TrEMBL record:
Protein's recorded name: RNA polymerase factor sigma-54
RNA polymerase sigma factor 54 DNA-binding domain residues: 377-535
Ranges of compositional bias, category Acidic residues: 47-103
UniProt domain RNA polymerase sigma factor 54 core-binding: residue ranges: 157-355
């Protein structure tokens, strides 16, 4: 039996334009340029252009255009209307966005934006929407600092080399036979990113047999391994940490401290890792001064030699030296803070003039057959996509500036002094309410962005912290508590370091109501070991 039901359903979905804006918002400046190039490759209607080209185009089109459109309407057509603000009111729930204090609400993506009015009924094409939009054709971002091309390009160091390339170059000068060269290349290819070979020699022998049809014994492989271990950087191709450190000690002058250091690593390595210095003294019969000098030598060694090569990426990977490109630049002009976007956040984009002229040709054509309509439909689609992309870049720029301006206003004392104790408690919700945007929008901005100040480069997540209750009734930032905790540990007696219980009591005495487990959590987040491992001679 057939049945007909009537059902009413209310749902909220993201349009392609909204999804594009969200994706552009969350990528950092270093990836924005790549994303723009990708868009230009798939959309020929999107072009790069400077303001001079835009001015010439405006002058030449002024005589041909009977009436200039309203600049405020240049981004909109009968088919598409983009809202200026992508954020809308929504219900939110608390959720932690970081390991300790980057905590706030993260609603569904649909709550971040308001529905856009899209009319997909494209039976008739209004040519005027595309041929009279010179403002977009010569669009240039505003408020991004210097516009000179030489100042826009940020020079980066040459990182073309790699650790693997360096080792292979040294292998070619090692005067090995053909078999030794093949074994050496296999060993170098087996080196991890930190400079170690953790695969068994038997497994490497199997790799040579199966992949290159080369039979080599473990003794032959170990002979070549010892040759590679003499390459730079010192300690490379070790199979474990003691061997890595011993390889480095072999290259040092064989003084008494170096010899004692070798004895510590070979005979009492477990005791050394646990800092049981008394046991080491008893087992090796060392005086206090001798032990102290030997430990000082060991502490100067590099436990990860893979990071000390030209690239340090091991295996020749593209990883290694990483360069942080700030998204914002904050300058202090006699107490006046000036915030600008990195110039790479403001590319000069325009809609292709050739594609707009195609639509003009269609408008003037006397005969409009099916092929012509299909071609115009394709051109119109690319023009819409280019407009949406330019508008998304513009909205990204405005959202970044609004969010960062609110952060600077709230953390003004810190940006003026650089003192961590001046940081105020701040969560995502505070900034969202201040600028009238959704919390998930603020989260996307803060998640992968950074700012360059006179005190250094900081990730935006650094400025978000939870509040710690104090005896005065006011909340203190967890960053402030961490700063004090770091100072207390830095000033402790090295032979009698402070335990978490003592640190808790000292913080409570200063008016911070904090528990011991919170002290332990903050200490771990600061990468500070427990008291036993902080002990020094």
């Amino acid at each position: 039996m057939q049945r007909l039901d009537l059902k009413q359903l209310l749902s909220q979905r993201l349009s392609p334009q909204q999804i594009q804006f969200i994706k552009l918002l969350q990528i950092p400046t270093a990836e924005l340029e790549t994303r723009i190039k990708e868009e230009m490759e798939v959309n020929p209607a999107l072009e790069e252009g400077d303001s001079d080209d835009a001015d010439e185009r405006d002058d030449s089109d002024a005589d041909d255009t009977p009436e200039a459109d309203d600049p405020n309407d240049s981004l909109d057509s009968d088919d598409t209307t983009l809202d200026e603000d992508f954020s809308g009111p929504s219900e939110v729930s608390d959720d932690s966005a970081g390991p300790d204090d980057y905590a706030d609400e993260r609603p569904e993506p649909a709550a971040e934006v308001e529905a856009l009015g899209i009319d997909n009924d494209n039976h008739e094409i209004d040519i005027s929407d595309y041929v009279n939009d010179d403002e977009i054709a010569g669009y240039k971002m505003q408020g991004d600092g210097p516009g000179d091309e030489e100042e826009r390009d940020m020079p980066l160091a040459d990182t073309s080399g790699s650790l693997q390339d360096s080792l292979l170059d040294q292998l070619h000068f090692a005067q090995l036979d053909e078999l030794g060269q093949a074994i050496g290349e296999q060993l170098i290819g087996s080196i991890d990113g930190d400079g170690y070979i953790r695969r068994d020699l038997a497994a490497i022998a199997n790799d040579l047999a199966f992949s290159q049809n080369i039979e080599a014994s473990e003794a032959e492989i170990e002979r070549v391994l010892h040759v590679i271990q003499q390459f730079d950087p010192p300690g490379i191709a070790a199979r474990d940490l003691p061997e890595c450190l011993l390889l480095q000690l072999e290259r040092r002058p064989q003084e008494e401290a170096t010899i004692n250091a070798e004895r510590i690593l070979t005979e009492t390595f477990d005791e050394f890792t646990k800092k049981h210095y008394q046991r080491i003294q008893q087992k090796l019969d060392l005086e206090d001064d001798e032990l102290k000098e030997a430990v000082a030598v060991i502490l100067k060694l590099n436990p990860k030699p893979g990071g000390s090569g030209p690239m340090g990426g091991g295996k020749g990977s593209a990883g290694g030296a990483q360069y942080l490109m700030p998204d914002f630049i904050l300058t202090n002009d006699n107490g006046e803070l000036n915030l600008t976007l990195n110039a790479r956040n403001a590319p000069e984009l325009r809609v292709s003039r050739d594609y707009r002229e195609m639509l003009q040709t269609y408008d003037k054509a006397a005969k409009k057959d099916q092929k012509m309509k299909e071609a115009v439909s394709f051109v119109k689609q690319k023009l819409d996509s280019a407009k949406w992309f330019i508008d998304a870049i513009r909205q990204r720029q405005n959202t970044l500036l609004r969010t960062m301006s609110a952060i600077v206003e709230r953390q003004r004392e810190f940006f003026l002094t650089g003192d961590d104790s001046k940081l105020r408690p701040m969560i995502l919700k505070d900034i969202a309410q201040a600028i009238g945007m959704d919390i998930s929008t603020i989260s996307r901005v803060a998640n992968s962005k950074s700012i360059q100040t006179e005190h250094g480069i900081y990730p935006l997540k650094f400025f978000f912290s939870e509040g710690i209750a104090t005896d005065s009734g006011e909340d203190a930032s967890s960053r402030e508590v961490k700063s004090i905790l770091r100072d207390l540990i830095g000033n402790e007696k090295k032979d009698h370091p402070l335990s978490d219980d003592k640190l808790e009591k000292m913080l409570n005495a200063r008016g911070y109501n904090i528990a011991r487990r919170t002290v332990a959590k903050y200490r771990e987040q600061l990468n500070i070991p427990v008291a036993r491992l902080r002990k020094e001679l």
